[in-house]
Amino acid sequence: MIPKYRAWLKDDREMKNVNVIFWKDDELKAINVDMGFADINNTIKWDYTFMPDKVVLMQSTGLKDINGNEIFEGDVVKFEDVFEKESQRDCSPPFIVYREYNHAAVFNNNLEFFLSNFEKESTIDSDIKYGDLNLTDVLEKSEVVGNIYENKELMKVEG
Question: What pTM was computed for the model?
Answer without folding.
Answer: 0.76
